[in-house]
Amino acid sequence: METNDATMNKTNDVKVSIRHLYKIFGENPQGVMDQVRDGIGKAELLKQTNHVLGLNDINVDIRSGKITVIMGLSGSGKSTLIRHLNRLIEPTAGEVLFDGEDILTWNESRLRDLRRKHMSMVFQKFALLPHRTVMENAAMALATRGISRDEYEAEAKKWLSRVGLGGYGNQYPHQLSGGMQQRVGIARALASNSEIMLMDEAFSALDPLIRTDMQNLLLELQDELHKTVVFITHDLDEALKLADHLVILKDGRVVQQGEPQHILLNPNDPYIEDFVADINRARVLRVRSVMSKGAIDGEFSGDIDHDSNLESVIGEAEGALDKRYRVMRNGEPVGTLEMRAIMRALVPRVQAE
Predict the structure, then answer these.
(1) 20 three-class SS
(2) What own/partner pairs with CB < 8 Å and gap ≥ 24 does 29-33 have?
(3) Fewer CB in a 10 Å sphere around the end CB: N or C, the chain?
(4) Using one digit for the tens of pLDDT, what is the confidence trace for 297-330?
(5) What is the pLDDT of residues 109-138, one digit of tens each?
C-alpha cells in the first residue's frame, strides 16, 4: 500500500495541493485523531468510537491544465474529498493549497470569491433551476457577479453553442433530455471562466451512449481550453479514458495514484489488481506505454502513432506475431514496438506472475 507521504514531485504547474488531509465524522473528531494517525482502520474506528473515517492522510497534487480523476467504490471518500477543495466540507486536519496558499485560513469573503470566480462545479443531478431558462441557467455564475445582462447572455449563448445547444437558450430544463441538461451544466461551468472545474460523478446518471458522448465532449473541450479538471467517478473505464492523473481511493485512503497507463501495467496492491483485472487492456493501453525507446533502426512493418491503442496495432498486424513497428509522434520517430511486447502487456501482472 502507498505510504501516502508528501514526497511527490512538486513543480510550478501544481494548481491545488492537498497535504495530510483528514476528515472524521462524529461528535469529537479531534479526540480520535491520535488513533487514526496510529493506524486504526475505518471499520475499527466506527466500532470502537462511533466515528466515521472519511479521509485518511490524503496527499495529492492537482496540476494546472490537466484532468485529475479521483475514483473508488461507494464509501471510498471521493465525493468527500472533492468538497474539501472549495471548503464545502471542513477538514479535521491538513491543508488545501490553492496557488500555494492554504484556503483553510481564508475568511468567508475570500471563499465566496474562490467559489464564484476560480472553481466551478458540475453535479451528477445537473442542479439546474427549473424556473429559469437554459440561457439563464448557463449564465448563473456570471449574473451573480453584477455583469450586465447583455454581456452575460452573450457569454452564455457562446458556451451553449459550444456544447451543442445553440438555439436552446429559451427552453426550460424539463424540455431537455438528461444528456442535454448535463451539457447545460458544463456550459454554465465554462461560462463562469473559472480556472478549475470540479465534476462530481457528472456523467453517472446518463445512459451509456450519452455518457460516451459527454466524455468525448469533455476531452474535446479540454484539448482546446486546458482547464484544470477534478473528475470524480466510480467507473474505471471512464477514469482510464479521461485521466491525466488517476487517484484511487479505498476506505478514505489513497491506495495508488499516477499516470493511468502506469497503474494499469503496475498495480501496487491486490485491490488495484482486482480493479484492473477485467479491463479490455488492448482497447485501453497505448503504444507509448509498451514501446521500446532505444535505437530506432532495422526493418519495420510500418509506422504507428504513439497514442494508438494496442487493439488497432493488433488489427494492423492481422494477428501476425513477427511484426515490428516504428513509433511516431508529431511526425518524428520516438521508439519501436514488437508484437511480443503487446502480448506481454495484455496479460494482467498478477496472472503473469
Answers:
(1) strand
(2) 29/92, 30/92, 33/92, 33/93
(3) C
(4) 888 999 999 989 999 999 988 878 889 999 999 8
(5) 999 999 988 999 887 777 789 999 999 999
Of 353, 352, 348, the residue nearest 264 (C-alpha): 348
Question: Is the pLDDT reported for residue 252 higher than 90?
Answer: yes
Phi, psi of 232 (to 5 degrees): -100, 135
Which candidate, 92, 76, 73, 72, places its Cα nearest to that of 84?
A: 92
Pairing verdict, β 93-98 and 245-250 = unpaired
- The C-alpha atoms of residue 44 and residue 201 are separated, in whole angstroms, by 29
The model's confidence at residue 15, banded by pLDDT at 50, 70 and 90, is very high
Torsion of CA 89, 92, 98, 100, to 10 degrees: 170
45, 184, 65, 51: which is closest to 127 by C-alpha?
184
273 near 249, Cβ under 8 Å?
no
Contact yes or no for 2/268 (Cβ under 8 A): yes
- CB-CB contact of 91 with 30 (8 Å): no
Distance CA 263, CA 19 (A): 22
Q: How far is CA 127 from the centre of its chain?
A: 20
Judge whether residue 13 has pLDDT over 70. Answer: yes
Higher model confidence: residue 206 or residue 175?
175
Beta strand segments in the chain, E: 14-25, 52-63, 67-71, 93-98, 101-102, 119-123, 196-200, 228-233, 245-250, 253-258, 302-305, 324-329, 332-338
Query: Mean per-residue pLDDT for 236-245?
Result: 92
CB 344 within 8 A of CB 325: no
Rounded to the nearest 10 degrees, how much is the dihedral formed by the CA atoms of 10, 11, 15, 18?
0
